[in-house]
Design a protein that fits this description.
This protein is of the alpha/beta class and 179 residues long. The protein has one domain: Rossmann fold (3-Layer(aba) Sandwich). The chain is built from five helices and six strands. Helix 3 links the parallel strand 3 and strand 4. It is globular, with a radius of gyration of 15 Å.
Length: 179
């Protein structure tokens, strides 16, 4: 059976191995998952970032768990259906912002956990509340700002819980012959 992989997507102004991703990747590795982080630096287009994530996931032996922060959360949701994501963890996802594209028509059909700070100065937490209501996603509102640094221990715990909940369901192998 193929090793399950967690694929991280960073935000607009960060990089593939920022503070949160490094911390969460250590936990993911300790749990026996493969870890990847896609580098979107220099790509401003959300659509191009989604295409890069879809193309990257097509190289994986099994459907991934996607973790996205801010713009990376929007990218993860945009790619989730195409890559048959097993689960999503979204940190302060950049949903419903007028400067960004709308969410895809096909929403992910996988367990979704959202963590958002009440004091987020970049993306209003109301946007995650709205998405969680539509998607019936687990939503955790915390006393933190956009970076969620103070809430990283909770985010780590929520990621562990998500992965454990998926452990009983084997990661489906990807049929690379299908579009």
């Amino acid at each position: 059976m193929a090793q399950a992989v967690v694929v991280f997507s960073h935000g607009k102004d960060s990089g593939p191995w920022g503070h949160k991703i490094k911390a969460l990747a250590a936990t993911v590795t300790a749990m026996g998952y493969g870890v990847e982080s896609v580098d979107y630096q220099g790509i401003d287009s959300v659509e191009q970032r989604i295409a890069k994530l879809v193309a990257f996931c097509a190289t994986l032996p099994a459907a991934p768990v996607l973790v996205g922060s801010s713009l990376g959360g929007l990218v993860a949701v945009g790619a989730a259906a195409a890559v048959k994501a097993r689960g999503l963890l979204l940190m302060a996802p950049a949903f419903y912002l007028p400067v960004l594209p709308d969410l895809p028509q096909t929403l992910p059909a996988c367990p979704t956990v959202i963590v958002h700070g009440w004091r987020d100065e970049v993306v209003p937490c109301d946007n995650s509340i709205r998405y969680a209501r539509v998607q019936q996603a687990a939503l955790h509102l915390v006393d933190d700002d956009h970076r969620l640094y103070d809430s990283l221990p909770l985010v780590d715990t929520l990621l562990q819980q998500l992965l454990r909940s998926l452990d009983g369901a084997s990661a489906p192998e990807i049929d690379h012959a299908q579009p």
